[in-house]
Amino acid sequence: NEDKYKWIVINIRKAWNQRTYRERNKTKKQYSINMSHDIGDILDKLSLARNENKNAIVEALIRAEYKKLPR
Prior knowledge:
By secondary structure, this protein is mostly helical. It is built from 3 helices and no strands.
């Protein structure tokens, strides 16, 4: 019974954490893309050098390239 109670509590906590995560990130969409192996290392170095997370760096690079497009 104690194991069952622990299992229920853990599952409820996981569900709650997932719900709060989704609520916080409603304005964001997750993307999964394949890149060359060396890109991960380059992105890590950029992240450390700029003191930003990887998501912010990728977003900034994409926005900068998009601004260059003729309209």
